[in-house]
Design goal:
By secondary structure, this protein is mainly β. It has five helices and 16 strands. It has a single domain, classed as Beta Barrel (Porin). The longest helix is centred in the first third of the chain and has 15 residues. Helices cover 12% and strands 56% of the residues. Strand 10 and strand 11 form a beta hairpin. It has a 16-stranded antiparallel β-barrel with strand order 1-2-3-4-5-6-7-8-9-10-11-12-13-14-15-16.
Length: 340
């Protein structure tokens, strides 16, 4: 949810006050970390004089509190680069989570992760290149105001997350009385040398049903088959989307998104080969609206907290691109991800 600079800085200041309390208290209760993405971009299709630029595309500060007895909190301000290069500071996460003792479920309330993107990005692992295909095309947001329940069983054999949300995303305000129900479940079919909620061969499904502000329908159905080991990561994702609005009565738009990616970690090095293809058919009422995005490159982990990724990002249009689309369709990117 976008908020004023005053409110966001007040939330951040509150977190920093906790950090400043005596070590005997703060060292056990509060941790501060962050992640940032920076890049150099060269527009390979653009013949204008402004076809290259440096940018910080995203920066987070995570203030996490572990208050004991199963209660944790999180506040994450997000410095986001808007079109044109200006920056907006807003809240990405702000919630309390409670896990009862010896209980497999965690309950969250506030601006929390939505069930799909946080999990899927943990399989793809190159969020610094850009968002997942369903988010890039505006179908899903990564966080929203709501109430959620997370759970895992059998050493992550089954991992699930469900919740009720406002449905407009953390940057879209509270909306109206309409709500969205979202849920994801992931099952490990085979084990590999990677454990956790993404390791092994996994089958994952996601569903969402709700109404946008003003009425209509919003439906998302997503499935993914993924494989993750120390050497190789591959994934195939398919999504069906259904959207309508009653503000100005509109037909039901039936979108489709397909995405496939692979990451090969070269033996004996800290380098990886990365490739991804996204195909989006938004059903905008024309016969030539499909777009296909190709991403390919090489990454190198310089330090446990620093990774660099050189890649080509090309967007292919089914129809004839406009001059503005033509100028932006192919770009070379040198990107870094840093954490602390």
């Amino acid at each position: 949810m976008r908020c004023s600079l005053r409110l966001t800085w007040a939330a951040l200041a509150a977190g920093l006050v906790l950090v400043a309390v005596p070590r005997s208290v703060a060292a056990q209760a509060v941790t501060v970390g962050g992640v940032g993405y920076a890049q150099y971009r060269y527009q390979l299709s653009d013949t204008a004089t402004n076809n290259n630029s440096f940018a910080v595309t995203r920066a987070y500060i995570n203030v996490n509190g572990n208050l004991g007895s199963g209660l944790v909190t999180r506040i994450t301000p997000d410095l986001f680069a808007e079109a044109g290069g200006s920056f907006v500071l807003r809240l990405k996460y702000a919630y309390a989570a409670f896990t009862p003792p010896d209980f497999p479920l965690t309950f969250k309330l506030g601006i929390i992760q939505t069930p799909w993107l946080d999990w899927a990005e943990g399989v793809w692992v190159y969020r610094m290149q850009g968002t997942m295909s369903v988010e890039r095309n505006g179908y899903i947001t990564s966080a929203d105001l709501g109430f959620g329940v997370d759970g895992a069983w059998g050493n992550q054999l089954v991992n699930m997350q469900v919740g009720v949300y406002n449905g407009e995303g953390y940057q879209g305000g509270v909306g109206d009385a309409n709500k969205d129900v979202m849920g994801r479940v992931s099952v490990r079919l085979l084990s590999t040398d990677v454990q956790g909620s993404r390791g092994g061969v996994r089958l994952t499904g996601y569903g969402q049903y709700g109404k946008p502000t003003g009425g209509g329908v919003r439906v998302r159905i997503i499935g993914m088959v993924s494989y993750q080991s120390r050497r190789l990561i591959v994934g195939a994702e398919g999504a069906l989307t259904r959207d309508s609005s009653s503000v100005t009565p509109s037909p039901l738009l039936k979108g489709n998104v397909l995405s496939g990616f692979g990451i090969y970690r070269i033996p004996g090095t800290m380098a990886s080969l990365v490739a991804r293809v996204d195909l989006t058919d938004p059903d905008t009422g024309t016969d030539e609206d499909r777009q296909t995005r190709f991403i390919g490159g090489v990454s190198y982990r310089i330090h446990p907290n620093l990774q660099i990724f050189a890649n080509i990002d090309h967007l292919d249009y089914q129809g004839t691109p406009t001059p503005a689309q033509q100028a932006l369709r192919t770009q070379g990117l040198l990107q870094i991800e840093f954490t602390y």
